[in-house]
């Protein structure tokens, strides 16, 4: 078939494998024919692939999406009145519906039948009809204060008359119906393309005029519709328009499915033009947020604010413009497709991609970004969702369109293989038969290379193969492999780091953090809501301020989120080989020793001991007087902790010495200790001496008890009897360290919480109710204040829960990130410290209504916070990760049962013995302290109750 090698002189010896003669003209004709066949087959393949993507996209329309902005507590339903979203089944309309409902509007959706995204299940009232019928619209608009007009002709519509009817006629109908029904505000969903002239726009503002000639009827009619809306603004009907850039996001019906269709057709590598053009992209939730801001402004009673918005259009975007093709690459690569990299002329790219209008090509190859300053000033707009988080959310939502999910279509593969093999064979034939010296030489080399395999085949009795068959077969095999492995890579969700709060070089946000950490957190939350990173010196600390973050924090095990790396400053106080100085396996065993003593039987045994200490202590108060409550509660909790933890030997003979030594250890926990725990300052020297003395004191008690063989009914005895998995007993120093750790947790935090509890119970008028409750509990249990009586005191336990919500002893809980952790759409990288704030969580209005008020009834049965925390089981039963006073997850405070028991007994006894009154105001928290107590004295007057 292929022409043999020819020479102008003597012909060479015929090779074993001869190339058949064929005129060059026939080769070129064959080549041209194959090209035609190729393009026809490619067109068929493109149609099939696009149909496959559309089918996959249609299957994903009903998929639930996870809004980033609607995760906090919604406003009461209907509290803002009725709102109607015309076109609420569209991509943009669906997001607007979601946010309006979240803001408290009762939303009604009116859309054409078979809208892109059916809004049922959102809480909106849905009806379908003719969006160009003013009569139908009037029926829906009745009683509405707000209308959002988001209806537009679908991008797939090519009927100019239909486009004009929907875009322009529909807008006229909406305006007529709004005027007729007394609608107060109308927000129109426009587009930045209404001012696009095809030549490129860079950082223009709303003063940019509409172009004299629009590129297509869709853009022209939307521009004319926007003009109508803005011109209709009046005293009775306030209007404005929102102009988002290139829209993308969850539920996208256009951009991302179109990109995937191009990628699935093998065209994702193409960059049209230079690839250096920038554009404004707008995440759908950001655009919807702008709609809500505009609605609030138009409905505002503030006339100057309303005037800034009425009759104006506003560009909105994700912030800074981004390279158009880079953004496309981020979306595609996140779904496992190749990012665009091969630059081709715009005209050629449009031809290769197919189906692109000249307007689309110009839009993809020119600058078009705009100033959002007007939206910032008039609406207070700033993109609430960062673009990297938006891209990650979009990619995650469209997992059903990833390359691996679409799979391989056998028919498409066969067509592609046939087309590719035919083209390669034709090209090879044309090259080898061309009358050019290089072609002649190439043909001879091919014949020589194929001589040996041809002879082998002939010797085996196989008919002599034809070169075209060999070339075609090789091509077929290679392209079959290529078709079986389509233009795809494993799905990769872009890693999105939390936003970082700007700071000073080297020291970062250290100065502001030392001035007031909670103030810094509050400012950061205003800008970044749920998650952000501070730099405290060289160390990045990522703060999570939402239940999603609390869950990430709580579910992390020690090999993922390490406590020891953060709380290592406690080692000088607690000791070597104890808790944070112990290897992980040993530390977990020590924690199990502690957990084993927090059972119900042990708690029952503590009740008479704590009651005895409390009654004896308060009896010394006399008939009436004035006390500083914090000092009194601190002394009493030291006695009760010593009785339950250390045993009778320490309580009866060494309590004063232990208390003094513990005071020095506690005093060694300074803010500077967290950075330099062994800095030679006086507080650290006293701490180290006290630690040595306590080791001697407890060591002596332990040795005597071991030698005597007597068993105590205290935690000290539990530690003496405990054994590690290898059978070894705890050393005296390890027992000392664990006792110090428990005393620190059980005395310091309990004394502070007991003080806050009393100030709240007395200061807010709950003392008489607590007195009545404990009296009834005693009577129901034979006149005895026992464990069962204490567990029945729901008000008391709710008061403790509410006190800890408002005044958690520790304002921050931290862990070192050992392995990257995901929090919603963000990734907290290895090396960061992950932090949550129990104080911020407890006062978060999104979680707790009237969060700054002391309302223990919120935790009662039927109360607002009943499902967030159980005062009875002391757990987050429904795993909603909202109550953080004891931490969360596997590291929730083990001593919480003891704390509730101890505090309930103290205030049950105190309320039974005395009536009390707070002198002055309840002091504010001292956030400069390591453990947050009252800032100032807590003075109360008391008088003994008259017994009846």
UniProtKB/TrEMBL annotation:
<dbReference type="InterPro" id="IPR002403">
    <property type="entry name" value="Cyt_P450_E_grp-IV"/>
</dbReference>
<dbReference type="InterPro" id="IPR036291">
    <property type="entry name" value="NAD(P)-bd_dom_sf"/>
</dbReference>
<feature type="binding site" description="axial binding residue">
    <location>
        <position position="893"/>
    </location>
    <ligand>
        <name>heme</name>
    </ligand>
</feature>
<dbReference type="InterPro" id="IPR036396">
    <property type="entry name" value="Cyt_P450_sf"/>
</dbReference>
<dbReference type="GO" id="GO:0016616">
    <property type="term" value="F:oxidoreductase activity, acting on the CH-OH group of donors, NAD or NADP as acceptor"/>
</dbReference>
<dbReference type="InterPro" id="IPR017972">
    <property type="entry name" value="Cyt_P450_CS"/>
</dbReference>
<dbReference type="GO" id="GO:0016705">
    <property type="term" value="F:oxidoreductase activity, acting on paired donors, with incorporation or reduction of molecular oxygen"/>
</dbReference>
<dbReference type="GO" id="GO:0004497">
    <property type="term" value="F:monooxygenase activity"/>
</dbReference>
<dbReference type="GO" id="GO:0020037">
    <property type="term" value="F:heme binding"/>
</dbReference>
<dbReference type="InterPro" id="IPR001128">
    <property type="entry name" value="Cyt_P450"/>
</dbReference>
<dbReference type="Pfam" id="PF01073">
    <property type="entry name" value="3Beta_HSD"/>
</dbReference>
<keyword id="KW-0349">Heme</keyword>
<dbReference type="Pfam" id="PF00067">
    <property type="entry name" value="p450"/>
</dbReference>
<dbReference type="InterPro" id="IPR050529">
    <property type="entry name" value="CYP450_sterol_14alpha_dmase"/>
</dbReference>
<dbReference type="GO" id="GO:0005506">
    <property type="term" value="F:iron ion binding"/>
</dbReference>
<dbReference type="InterPro" id="IPR002225">
    <property type="entry name" value="3Beta_OHSteriod_DH/Estase"/>
</dbReference>
<keyword id="KW-0408">Iron</keyword>
<keyword id="KW-0479">Metal-binding</keyword>
<dbReference type="GO" id="GO:0006694">
    <property type="term" value="P:steroid biosynthetic process"/>
</dbReference>
<comment type="similarity">
    <text>Belongs to the cytochrome P450 family.</text>
</comment>
<feature type="domain" description="3-beta hydroxysteroid dehydrogenase/isomerase">
    <location>
        <begin position="84"/>
        <end position="339"/>
    </location>
</feature>
<protein>
    <recommendedName>
        <fullName>3-beta hydroxysteroid dehydrogenase/isomerase domain-containing protein</fullName>
    </recommendedName>
</protein>
């Amino acid at each position: 078939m292929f022409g043999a090698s020819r020479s102008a002189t003597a012909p060479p010896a015929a090779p074993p494998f001869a190339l058949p003669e064929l005129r060059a003209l026939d080769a070129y004709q064959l080549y041209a024919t194959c090209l035609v066949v190729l393009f026809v087959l490619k067109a068929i393949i493109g149609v099939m692939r696009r149909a496959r993507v559309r089918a996959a996209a249609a299957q994903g329309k009903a998929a639930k999406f996870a809004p980033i902005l609607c995760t906090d507590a919604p406003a009461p339903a209907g509290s803002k009145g009725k709102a109607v979203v015309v076109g609420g089944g569209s991509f943009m309309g669906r997001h607007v519906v979601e946010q309006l409902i979240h803001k408290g509007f009762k939303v009604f959706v009116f859309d054409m039948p078979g809208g892109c995204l059916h809004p049922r299940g959102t809480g909106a009232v849905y009806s379908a009809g003719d969006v160009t019928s003013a009569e139908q619209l009037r029926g829906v608009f009745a009683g509405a204060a707000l209308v959002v007009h988001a209806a537009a002709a679908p991008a797939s519509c090519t009927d100019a008359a239909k486009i004009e009817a929907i875009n322009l006629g529909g807008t006229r109908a909406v305006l007529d119906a709004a005027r007729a029904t007394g609608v107060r505000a109308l927000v129109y969903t426009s587009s930045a393309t209404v001012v696009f002239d095809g030549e490129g726009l860079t950082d223009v503002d709303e003063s940019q005029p509409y172009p004299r000639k629009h590129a297509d009827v869709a853009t022209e009619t939307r521009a004319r519709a926007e003009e109508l809306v803005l011109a209709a603004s009046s005293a009775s009907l306030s209007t404005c328009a929102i102009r988002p850039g290139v829209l993308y996001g969850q539920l996208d019906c256009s951009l991302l499915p179109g990109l995937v269709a191009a990628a699935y057709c093998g065209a994702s590598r193409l960059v049209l033009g230079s690839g250096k053009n920038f554009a404004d992209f707008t995440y759908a939730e950001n655009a919807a947020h702008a709609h809500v801001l505009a609605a609030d402004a138009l409905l505002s009673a503030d006339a100057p604010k309303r005037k800034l918005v009425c009759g104006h259009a506003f560009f909105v975007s994700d912030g800074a413009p981004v390279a158009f093709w880079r953004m496309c690459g981020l979306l595609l690569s996140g779904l496992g497709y190749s990012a665009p990299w091969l630059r081709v002329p715009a005209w050629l790219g449009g031809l290769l991609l197919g189906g692109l209008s000249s307007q689309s090509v110009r839009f993809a190859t020119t600058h078009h970004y705009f100033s959002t300053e007007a939206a910032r000033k008039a609406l207070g707009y700033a993109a609430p969702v960062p673009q990297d988080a938006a891209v990650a959310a979009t990619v995650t939502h469209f997992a059903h369109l990833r390359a691996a999910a679409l799979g391989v279509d056998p028919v498409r593969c066969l067509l592609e293989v046939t087309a590719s093999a035919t083209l390669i064979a034709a090209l090879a034939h044309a090259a080898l038969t061309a009358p050019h010296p290089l072609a002649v030489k190439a043909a001879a080399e091919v014949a020589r290379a194929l001589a040996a395999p041809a002879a082998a085949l002939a010797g085996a009795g196989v008919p002599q193969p034809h070169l075209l068959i060999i070339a075609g077969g090789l091509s077929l095999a290679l392209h079959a492999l290529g078709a079986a492995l389509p233009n795809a890579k494993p799905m990769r969700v872009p890693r999105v780091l939390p936003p970082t709060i700007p700071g000073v070089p080297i020291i970062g946000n250290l100065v502001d953090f030392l001035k007031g950490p909670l103030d810094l957190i509050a400012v950061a939350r205003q800008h970044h809501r749920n998650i952000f990173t501070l730099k405290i010196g060289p160390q990045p600390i990522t703060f999570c301020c939402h239940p999603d973050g609390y869950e990430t924090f709580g579910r992390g095990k020690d090999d993922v989120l390490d406590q020891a790396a953060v709380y290592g400053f406690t080692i000088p106080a607690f000791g070597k080989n104890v808790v944070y100085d112990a290897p992980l396996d040993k530390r977990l065993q020590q924690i199990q020793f502690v957990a084993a003593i927090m059972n119900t039987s042990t708690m029952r045994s503590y009740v008479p001991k704590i009651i005895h200490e409390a009654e004896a202590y308060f009896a010394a108060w006399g008939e009436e007087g004035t006390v500083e409550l914090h000092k009194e509660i601190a002394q009493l909790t030291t006695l009760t902790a010593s009785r339950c933890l250390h045993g009778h030997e320490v309580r009866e003979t060494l309590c004063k010495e232990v208390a003094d030594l513990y005071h020095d250890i506690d005093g060694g926990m300074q803010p500077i200790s967290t950075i330099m725990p062994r800095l030679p300052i006086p507080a650290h020297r006293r701490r180290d001496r006290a630690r040595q003395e306590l080791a001697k004191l407890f060591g002596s008690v332990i040795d005597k008890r071991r030698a005597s063989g007597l068993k105590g009914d205290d935690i000290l005895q539990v530690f003496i009897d405990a054994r590690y998995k290898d059978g070894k007993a705890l050393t005296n120093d390890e027992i000392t360290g664990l006792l110090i750790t428990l005393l620190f947790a059980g005395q310091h935090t309990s004394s502070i919480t007991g003080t806050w509890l009393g100030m709240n119970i007395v200061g807010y008028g709950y003392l008489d109710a607590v007195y009545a409750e404990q009296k009834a509990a005693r009577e129901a249990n034979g006149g005895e204040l026992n464990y069962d009586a204490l567990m029945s005191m729901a008000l008391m336990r709710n008061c403790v829960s509410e006190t800890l919500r408002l005044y958690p002893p520790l304002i921050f809980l931290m862990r070192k990130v050992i392995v990257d952790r995901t929090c919603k759409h963000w990734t907290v990288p290895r090396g960061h410290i992950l932090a949550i704030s129990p104080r911020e969580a407890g006062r978060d209005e999104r979680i707790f209504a009237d969060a700054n008020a002391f309302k223990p009834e919120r935790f009662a049965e039927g109360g607002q916070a009943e499902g967030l925390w159980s005062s009875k089981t002391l757990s987050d039963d429904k795993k909603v990760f909202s109550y953080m006073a004891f931490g969360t997850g596997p590291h929730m405070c083990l001593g919480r049962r003891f704390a509730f028991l101890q505090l309930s007994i103290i205030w049950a006894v105190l309320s039974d013995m005395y009536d009390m009154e707070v002198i002055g105001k309840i002091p504010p928290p001292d956030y400069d302290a390591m453990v947050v107590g009252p800032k100032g004295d807590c003075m109360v007057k008391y008088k003994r109750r008259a017994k009846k």
